[in-house]
Design brief:
Shape: globular
Strand order of the largest sheet: 1-8-3-5-6
CATH class: Mainly Beta
CATH superfamily: YjbQ-like
Oligomer: single chain
Number of strands: 8
Length: 147
């Protein structure tokens, strides 16, 4: 059994920014020399998500509207009340309760089969990273287990 891993940065541009990271994942698999196994892609954040779907612009617009409905930005969140909140606070804390509520409904990781040195994606499947907060520098990790 061989295990390989890496971490890479994603600079998001906006709230609900969606970045296609498929090519980075494919590149890592091709350099790994692992022919058969599993690859796991994971966000390292509580207000971002990794998912698989089509990278079709009209679908992505629909997805953004749908996700906004899960945790609208225009309602009050206890998480954003910095007079009451006492944990996980830092100097640059932002009111992002909506981001965490959205993320609770979305995956933090996805696992994909590797067969004959290639990740197994359907015709239109792409690996996507979505920012649920504001423009930030984000980390994703990839780990491959196989032979």
């Amino acid at each position: 059994m061989i295990i390989k891993n890496t971490e890479f940065l994603i600079q998001t541009e906006d709230y609900l920014d969606i970045t296609d990271i498929t090519d980075q994942v494919i590149d890592f698999v091709s350099k790994s020399d692992i022919k058969n196994g599993l690859i796991n892609i994971q966000t390292m954040h509580t207000s971002a998500s990794v998912f698989m779907n089509t990278n079709e612009p009209l679908f992505l617009e629909d997805l953004k509207k749908n996700i906004e409905g899960i945790g609208p930005r225009n309602i009050p969140y206890n998480h954003d009340d910095f007079k009451r909140r006492t944990v996980h606070m830092h100097k640059d804390e932002s009111p992002n309760g909506h981001s965490h509520c959205k993320a609770a409904h979305l995956p933090t990781n996805i696992t994909i089969n590797i067969v004959n040195g290639k990740i197994q994606l359907g015709t239109w499947q792409r690996i996507m990273f979505i920012e649920l907060d504001k423009p930030l520098s984000r980390k994703a990790q990839i780990q491959i287990i196989g032979l």
